[in-house]
């Protein structure tokens, strides 16, 4: 029997395979396990989700060690490959080299870096969305791909977010491909998928193309496959659904003065215990205590 495929190899194979790779955003091991249980192909260690869970803006307020700890926690909890959102690489090319080495050592399958300045600001927040100089970012991609062993390196294009337009996105795509990127992520904040479709159509390189359909939420897996995309990242829907559910439950408890009316909408304690792997723990305990 051959050795089990490493996380990076699994992600690479999935990017290259026909059909759309479906990736779910997570911010903690519990949510990563829910993504695995639901049947997603991979997990996205979302900067937005991890920052939001920490109660801080998605603006490089959390530093590399905190992002790495969160991402490694996801990778530890699931058998799925984890693609880590690494913002603009935590600084300059030196930070990117350290990033690649530490993320790879902790079992991440891939890293994604975006061509914005450090500190970055979440793409959907009004404010400074300026691009990094092309050469600086190409240098980061080159450094990342030369310093990694197997880690997948995704180059994320923010030209459409920053208002620099399609030509700039295409020009940069070509440069990042030459710098060794394994995949391109084209980001858009439009409410229709037209501009990511136009990018996919006009880009004639060889790299798989990744999308994050957050604002153009009507797009389907079938359409994305038909257009030739390799991967879709559902970056924040799990966090947003839990937020809504928690808010409603909490206000109901305040209003009713009892938890009786919310009880039947809640996950059971058994569901929690199962996600914590309590049955496995008890089984192991019984086995080893018997041996001892
Ligand atoms: C994230 O999930 O942190 C992302 C995707 O980078 S977005 O929030 O759309 O920028
Ligand atoms: Mg992010």
From TrEMBL:
Under Gene3D superfamilies, the record lists: Phosphoenolpyruvate-binding domains
The record's section on InterPro entries has: ICL/PEPM (IPR039556), Pyrv/PenolPyrv_kinase-like_dom (IPR015813), Pyrv_kinase-like_dom_sf (IPR040442)
Could you say which protein family the record assigns here? Belongs to the isocitrate lyase/PEP mutase superfamily. PEP mutase family.
Task: Kindly provide the name given to this protein in its UniProt entry.
Answer: Phosphoenolpyruvate phosphomutase
Please report the organism this UniProt entry assigns to the protein. Streptomyces anatolicus
Q: Which Pfam families match?
A: PEP_mutase
């Amino acid at each position: 029997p051959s050795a089990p495929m490493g996380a990076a190899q699994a992600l690479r194979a999935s990017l290259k395979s026909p059909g759309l790779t479906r990736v779910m955003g997570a911010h903690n091991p519990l949510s990563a396990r829910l993504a695995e249980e639901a049947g997603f192909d991979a997990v996205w260690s979302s900067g937005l989700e991890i920052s939001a869970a920490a109660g801080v803006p998605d603006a490089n307020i959390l530093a590399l060690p905190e992002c790495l700890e969160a991402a490694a926690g996801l990778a530890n909890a699931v058998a799925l490959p984890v693609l880590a959102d690494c913002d603009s690489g935590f600084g300059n090319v030196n930070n990117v080299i350290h990033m690649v080495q530490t993320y790879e050592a902790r079992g991440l399958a891939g890293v994604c870096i975006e061509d914005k300045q450090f500190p970055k600001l979440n793409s959907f927040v009004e404010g400074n969305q300026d691009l990094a100089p092309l050469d600086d970012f190409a240098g980061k991609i080159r450094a990342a791909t030369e310093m990694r062993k197997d880690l997948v390196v995704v180059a994320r294009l923010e030209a459409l977010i920053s208002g620099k337009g399609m030509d700039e996105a295409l020009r940069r795509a070509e440069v990042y491909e030459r710098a060794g990127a394994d995949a391109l992520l084209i980001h858009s904040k439009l409410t229709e998928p037209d501009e990511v479709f136009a990018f996919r159509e006009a880009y004639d390189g060889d790299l798989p193309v990744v999308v994050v359909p957050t604002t153009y939420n009507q797009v389907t897996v079938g359409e994305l496959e038909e257009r030739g995309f390799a991967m879709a990242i559902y970056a924040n829907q799990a966090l947003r659904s839990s937020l809504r559910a928690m808010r409603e439950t909490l206000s109901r408890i305040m209003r009713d003065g009892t938890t009786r009316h919310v009880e039947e909408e809640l996950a059971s304690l058994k569901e929690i215990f199962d996600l914590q792997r309590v049955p496995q723990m008890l089984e192991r305990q019984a086995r080893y205590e018997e041996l001892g």
